[in-house]
Predict the structure of YCII-related domain-containing protein.
Amino acid sequence: MFILELSFGDEPDRLAARPAHRERLQALHREGKVVMAGPFPDDSGALLIFDVADAEAFATIVDEDPYYRTPGVTIASQREWSPIIR
């Protein structure tokens, strides 16, 4: 599994890009690749949990979504995670 933490700025581009990003997340969720995803209550960022086999698959998911390169969206952290309770 992989965790992606985002931080958000005030740029309007982020909000304009969000609907397409959420559609992608829904599709990945249907495929079993996104476990959970959502913004923090203060809208300062978001946390996403991916269930993919390896770092290459995770990198491909991130690279294919332009939202992660949108002004106002910063990848604060991305790392592999080994949960002991699922």
Remarks:
- Residues 2-80 form a domain with the Alpha-Beta Plaits fold (CATH 3.30.70.1060).
